[in-house]
Design a protein that fits this description.
Layout (H helix, E strand, L loop, with lengths): L1 H6 L25 E5 L10 E7 L2 E9 L5 E12 L3 E10 L13 E14 L2 E8 L2 E9 L9 E9 L11 E3 L2 E7 L2 E9 L5 E13 L2 E12 L5 E15 L2 E10 L3 E10 L3
Antiparallel strand pairs: 1-2, 1-8, 2-3, 3-4, 4-5, 5-6, 6-7, 7-8, 9-10, 9-11, 9-17, 11-12, 12-13, 13-14, 14-15, 15-16, 16-17
């Protein structure tokens, strides 16, 4: 079924493939992750900031330490203050019922101790500013990377050109016959099989390096495209996939490519094939 759908799809836009959705959040880049102090990767061990985003709300919990070096627990509900890159809210310190006994909601207290704001410079880095009882703190933060994803497998995928497109014609949707991913460590190859505008079976092979940044990542490298029947190369260039998000169901990200004919911007993704 998917192959027949693919053959009804628009022609593959030069090297511009790919996408189903760019992020898990419909409001902005999804900033949900474990964040720590330091850039481009956390360098300050022992404290962290958990952010969970749902639409235009981010709930944060922060574990830090007081003047006596014992744990302090704060929470914050953040709202956007300047587009989708700056967020702020009141910082709470809570006390509650003993965890080893029956939970008593009446024992929970919330005390506003200051304010917290985050300004993200990109998908993976930002500046954290907060106050606790008049004490100001400023930190550069980035995502913690715990484990790299394994993208190897076969997918049903597609792409959408979001612009700008230079030399690519009008932007449009492409549906792939098949997207196959091979991965060895950080080395990754994505092969896209499709039907070109002339009705010929064709493919593009994208070879790059996977970089992990928390629950997101990026791939950058070079690609070549050819007609399947004779392997005659049609175009070649460079590409990148940023804000790469993965799950048990597949992956997606923002896509950029450039070859001798076309420079394109869009989205790229695939649903994992269970067969």
């Amino acid at each position: 079924m998917f192959k027949s759908i693919a053959r009804l799809g628009a022609a593959f836009i030069a090297a511009m493939g790919l996408s189903l959705s760019a992020t898990a959040s419909t409001f902005s880049i999804d900033y949900s992750d474990l964040w720590g102090g330091g850039q481009p990767a956390p360098t300050e061990a022992g404290w962290g900031l958990n952010l969970i985003q749902q639409g235009d709300v981010i709930f944060g919990t922060m574990f830090v330490y007081g003047t006596d070096n014992t744990a302090r627990w704060f929470s914050v509900t953040l709202s956007p203050t300047n587009g989708s890159t700056s967020w702020s809210g009141q910082l709470d310190q809570t006390t509650g019922s003993y965890y080893g006994g029956t939970w008593n909601n009446a024992a929970v207290t919330h005390n506003v101790v200051g304010n917290l704001s985050i300004t993200f410079s990109n998908a993976n880095a930002g500046t954290l500013t907060y106050t606790v009882n008049g004490v100001p703190v400023n930190k550069s933060i980035s995502r913690f990377s715990l484990r790299a994803p394994n993208l190897a497998g076969k997918y049903v995928g597609g792409g959408f050109g979001t612009g700008p497109q230079t030399g690519c014609g009008s932007r449009g949707i492409s549906v792939f016959d098949q997207l196959t991913v091979q991965q060895s460590g950080t080395s990754i190859t994505l092969r896209v099989d499709f039907v070109n505008g002339a009705g010929q079976d064709a493919y593009c092979s994208y070879n790059g390096t996977l970089t992990t940044t928390g629950r997101t990542g990026s791939i950058a490298g070079n690609f070549t495209c050819a007609i399947t029947s004779n392997n005659n190369q049609t175009n070649a260039g460079s590409f990148s996939i940023t804000n790469l998000e993965t799950s048990i169901n597949g992956f997606n990200g923002n896509f950029n490519s450039s070859d001798q004919f076309c420079t394109a911007t869009g989205r790229f993704g695939g649903i994992r094939d269970v067969i």
